[in-house]
Amino acid sequence: DLYHYSEYLSVLIYHFEMVSCEYYLINHSKNWVISTLISFAEFIIGTYFFDKYKKIKIFFIIGLLMTIVGQYFRIASLYTGKKNFTHRIRYDKANDHELITHGVYSLSRHPSYFGFYLWSVGIEVMCCNPICTIAFTIVLFKFFENRIIVEEGFLIQFFGQKYLDYKKKVGILIPFINMNKEMEERNLKIY
After folding, report:
1. Quick check: 157 and 123 in contact, CB under 8 A?
2. How far apart are CA 60 and CA 57, in angstroms?
């Protein structure tokens, strides 16, 4: 699908030295495989027992719009970030690492996370999977909240005041992820 091909293609273009099957991102974690299987199961069981509820067009349309916007943000973040975008958190600043603040990065400090979040939850809405919609929303929220705390600590360390100024201007866009005072202080101690 477009999502996985775009991920792999960005690695081919900007991080050729890292190319492996792992970057196709189909099997990137046991949790991802399990959640995908549960989503399929909910869809199949739901279609068998509650078929008329699986055909509610408004959910399909809303979910489709969510996946399109999510896909746009994810792909745009890969290609705007270029070599600065990696699939793993950087613990050391590369010599050529730049702070990207234009394009989709002017709309969200973490557009790839926002895109993936919207894309994943949108698929569940589109499939009328109420259990997975709720579960994906909660699990992805917690995952990205924790990841953003760690990543922003390193970004403050790498870019200092420049990142702090950027942070004041641009939000995250994932609903309810806001850096509270305690998180801010923890990140600033690193800086």
Report:
1. no
2. 5
